[in-house]
Amino acid sequence: AQRVTQPEKLLSVFKGAPVELKCNYSYSGSPELFWYVQYSRQRLQLLLRHISRESIKGFTADLNKGETSFHLKKPFAQEEDSAMYYCALGGKGANNLFFGTGTRLTVIP
Amino acid sequence: EAEVAQSPRYKITEKSQAVAFWCDPISGHATLYWYRQILGQGPELLVQFQDESVVDDSQLPKDRFSAERLKGVDSTLKIQPAELGDSAMYLCASSDLGGAQVTQYFGPGTRLLVL
Question: Between B42, B98, B103, which is nearest A46 by CB?
């Protein structure tokens, strides 16, 4: 069965501090992992996907198949990073995405 | 920039009443998704369409929920009768391809409150 776990519902960091949002998954096939973000009063949108191996807004995420993790990281948090972040899991053979419960990140000025 | 449109944005209804939500995907997107997001949880897929055909409705409570996409463009999600537990955000998303590897574009959602 597919499952996504985001252990932290709330995470607060100071501006300029590093941030890491945790995501662990369970999937028997070859996983595809995504991070979606929802800023205040905006719609849910894709932040990044592991297959792209790119940095978006300073965020990176590495798929670790051994630890079944896809943690989202940024070395220096900015106030505009405050948002709700969802980890999502798909994969070959899957029709759709499974979302975690989300982590609300607050960056303190 | 093209966006997914949803209406209404908010809906308050009494239990046992019927409600309907509308979604207009990004033009040209063949795949359309309806999600339900209960407060404090992530979106959960209710139904997925590829053009006008249902690809996955395994999580749709079919005794009270129905969804259609008659011409393969816009879609309607209906609840009849509504129950207190249906209070949630209903999100529509679209993508130009099917499968879990593609980027999904989300609408603003319809927040439903059942009294």
Answer: B103
